[in-house]
Structure formats: C-alpha cells, structure tokens
Amino acid sequence: MQQIFRMLMKLFQRARLEKPGQVDPRAAEFTLSLLVAMYDRSGTGYVKTRSAAAALISLSGDTLLAKYRAFFQFYSVPDGKETLITRSALRSLLTDLNQIPAIVGEGCALSCVEIAIRDCFHGVLNAAIVEEKFLSWLRSEPAVLLWLPTCYRLSATEMVSHQARCR
C-alpha cells in the first residue's frame, strides 16, 4: 500500500500543478482509503496494483474507449505476435471493477461475472480473445459494467451549459 500511496501522491501533485486550486491536498489519502475499502476488506494491508489501476482507470476522466484499451493492456498477456485476454484475466478484471459499485451497495453477484464472461467468449473456440473482440464486447455495454458508461456520460455532461431561460 505504501507503493500505491507514493504513486497517488505523484499523480495528485501533477494534477495540482495542471489544475491549481482544484485538487484537494488530501486527495491521495482519500483515494487510498477508497482503494483499501474496495480491495482490502480483510485488512491484510495489501492491495493488488492491477486492481488499484483498474479502479483509477475506471474513475478517470478519460474516454470510454481509452479506459477499455487500458483495461485490456493491464489484464492481457502476450502470446507470440498477439496480446490476448483469457477468461481468467477477464474474470479478474470484472471482479475488480465490480468492487466499485459494491462499495455503495450496488455490486452484482458472482453469477453476473460468469454470465458476462460467457457472453464475451460466445462463439470463441480459443482460450483467449484479441483486443478488438474485447472492445466490441465492451461497446455492447454488458450489464455487469453498465455503471461505467453511465458514469462516463454523467461526467461528460457535467460541464455542458445551455443558454436557455425558463419562464
């Protein structure tokens, strides 16, 4: 957790330089507390870097496609000329991402994850899939991750301003 905290400190220091006055000085502490609540419920003092990265990616202000590509990058494995994501890696990703809505009591059961994996690998004979198949499945907005595009759309419209007046 110390390693993650140091990384968060650097991340938020850079964010404070880019957006002065908009980043709380305790942002790294708050973020680490959130990550611990999501990924260290048994109090081991250990949070997987990959799980923390998945949470930070999903909560970032980046585009959905950039988030999806980053997920693939963090959870895939090289296989010769290609990089692939296996069922096991997809299960890890979905389980990690499911901790985000679960922290507010909105997570789904483990069966949702298994259904999503079956859906993603539908018609696939190999043990793993390429990035394009993974991205195509995510663009279909699987139920297990429906919160992610919804949150993205909400944050994308936060700064929209209409010059309309009501009577």
TrEMBL record:
Q: Where is the EF-hand domain?
A: 65-154
One biological process term in Gene Ontology: synaptic signaling
Pull one GO CC term from this UniProt entry: plasma membrane
Which top-rank group of organisms is this from?
Eukaryota
Q: Which Pfam families match?
A: EF-hand_3 (PF09069)
Q: What is this protein called?
A: DYTN protein
Organism, scientific name: Phainopepla nitens (Phainopepla)
The gene that this protein is the product of is Dytn
